[in-house]
Amino acid sequence: MPEPSGPADPAPLGVGRTPTGVPEPSGPADPAPLGVGRTPTGVPEVDARLDRLADADHLATSGHLEVYEDVHRGLRDTLTALDRRPGPPAPGPRSPSAT
Fold this sequence. Notes:
The protein is mainly α and 99 residues long. 28% of the residues lie in helices and 0% in strands. The protein has helices at 44-52, 64-82.
């Protein structure tokens, strides 16, 4: 016995329809968080910079670059500051006669 056929699909696949019959969105999707978890590093300056990445979740793709560059700049500054921490001065070069 032949199986009953469903209602005719008004548009063939590839023309605004998906294989499940659900209409495709007419334009780009709204920005949405990716839901990627992040484990805190324990370094407050670094964690604050990484938290700033969440700002990109609410921007169009064209706005991501500004956020990424800001975070990169901040992380670079934080790492550079590690080299400037106060402490005893590094020994200077020894003169050949000092040996």
